[in-house]
Fold these 2 entries.
Entry 1:
Amino acid sequence: MKKILFYVFIFLLIFNLSAQNEEKIDKTKYKITYLLRYRPDTTNTELILKERMFLFLGKEKSKFISEGFNAIDSVAKKMERDGSTTIDLGVIFNKIPRSKFKDVIYKNHPKEEITVTDAFGGTYYLYREPNQLFQWKIDDETKDLNGYRCQKATTSFGGRNYEAWFTQDIPIADGPYKFNGLPGLIVTIADDKYNYSYGLIDVLKSDEDMIFNNRNFVKTTKSELLTYKKEFYKNFVQSASQRGLTLDMDASEKKALNRKLSKRNNNPIEILY
Amino acid sequence: MRKYISILSIAFFTLFSASSYSTEAVIDDYYACVDVTFSCGHQGSVCGNSTTEIVTWIMIWDDEICG
């Protein structure tokens, strides 16, 4: 009896370990921090928000994630590990930055593929696209930025025209968001209307594992996902209640929240897809 | 006997946690819903398939509602 129970336990333990939801996909060599400046609301172009974003660069893959979402992930995993049953959101958000960006971009350079995951409305989404999204025009113009000799390049993407400055001092064909394919790391990139601009803050060596969080994703396409998202934020409260979030609010509070969120989400980085 | 119960509990816990990480998306297959007071005072209820998932969604929703 003792032996049977022991084998059952070992079998279940192996089964559980194989079903873990974290997958090590590469070893990070560099952790690069960018500052994103963006205009979230097309009806209030004076409003410019800032967020720090991380680009984890490995031998073959990279992962781009906002500092805030990266921290949310760490807090949640720590709570599960510690067996905590209570969470004080006020205390948590005093310690970690809030983030509007819950999308994570994984670039697989050998496979020439980008995987994007996103989280909204109680659902995790995933889509893939080829990484050769950019037709770069490289210019002869150079200048020094952040101590690096940089060269100018331009491209159009997602309905916006971008000017990038890359450096061959760091010969890695990667950059913030989905941008890649230049003969050096992108130091700054901004669209011509300054709706979205990324600027390098620092490059640090790292030996952290690069983790892919294998959640219960709904596999979709970019166009479907961006359409769902647009619809979701048009009427947040109603959409959220259909997705498992019930809110104890009166009608005027619901209306105000809907208005706030539709404004905060009306200027995505990709406007044509 | 106590030892068996303890091993059985671990085995059931292991089975339970394993089953909550299905590779297919079953959005309505929640195993727990918790009542939450968001950081800006609004109250609500959030559901998920594991502690990590529930905590992640609580923080995501809080970001949306109070951020």
Entry 2:
Amino acid sequence: MEFESARKGDKTLVIVRGRMDAVTAPEFEKEIDTRLQAGDTVVVADLTDLEYISSAGLRSILTSGKKLKAAGGSLAFCGLDGMVQEVFSVSGFTAMFPVFDTAEDAVEG
Amino acid sequence: MHALRLPARLDSLEEFTRFARQAAVDATMPEDLLPRLDLVLEEVLVNIFSYAYPQGRGEAEVSCGSTDGAFRVVIRDSGVSHNPLTTPPPDLEADMENRQVGGLGVHLVKQMASAAHYARDNGQNVLTLDFSPRPA
């Protein structure tokens, strides 16, 4: 999995690429920890280029969301598509997290 | 049905997944089945790798092929007797603070497969999962 982070006003956009599976999922949590240490607590994760996610990925996302919230921030998503969209939906994650169509919508929203 | 048997450890996941994908392609299953297949294999196998053999090493076997227009995957292990389909469903309505971390794997398996059946047979856990092509 690869990450690319950029400040967009008071938010931080994290572009996530690759697969979030049992092997790689902890990398997402680590990336969010790094953002938190840098003082970025309002994070939008762009999943347009995430090809695959399993329950290990959902676990990493939920833990990260809880950490950001505890720090007074939030975690939102954009670019959900295909199986990633389906997994988010059947797991109740689209109801639990703010979800936007595009990065532009998420950064403005 | 083709079968592949490998040590029950995380290193084996990729080979199991590649094997099942190839079988699905050979059976001319639609492409949107492949990520669902990956997901179900990961969820079931990682549980086997983690919990089936608390005393040490063991093996898992994946066999797959098409039956009556559906694609069937059978996953076997000789570990602790365990029916994953009886795992209580997660609370999907809970908000983030109250949401439990974990417990979603079996839920995803049930959502992605069109039918799921468990049997304890001859000292083995046998999980049979069918995937029907979805209407376009």
